[in-house]
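Subject: Sanity check before I submit

Could someone independently write out the structure tokens for this chain? I want to compare against mine line by line before I put it in a report. The sequence has 137 residues.
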Amino acid sequence: MQWLVYISEACVAPQSADAAQIYLTARKRNQELGLTGYLHREKGYFVQYVEGPPDGLDTLLKSLRRDWRHRHMQVYGRGPLKSRRFPNWDMAFTETPNASFSMWLGGTAGEPPCTQTLAEASSETVLAFFDSLRDAG
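---
Independent answer below. Compare away.
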């Protein structure tokens, strides 16, 4: 079992039919490949954490690299995993304003949000953000 985190620039409008298709396609494909994970969209970027068998992650990466709905994909990290972080989620999905990475980093009501973006964050910070979303329900 392995984990993978990547970020990419979105090429489809938020809450569009193309954006919805990403989620629907990912859920189906992840079930077929034995993958679970979390996809978040914010400020023009997708960031995704995926976990499962190495062969499934390899297949997913090949597909993602050909997908026109995003570009400039960058893998943040990949490594071994003892147990799943998201065992019950074939694909969880959030986007701002429902969940905000910059607000999670330090912005509170009445204060400006943190200026760090998803594109600048470390894989550990992104994983902690996903953990907080999972724990919030």
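---
OP: Matches mine. For the report I'm noting this point. Residues 108-114 have pLDDT under 50 and may be disordered.
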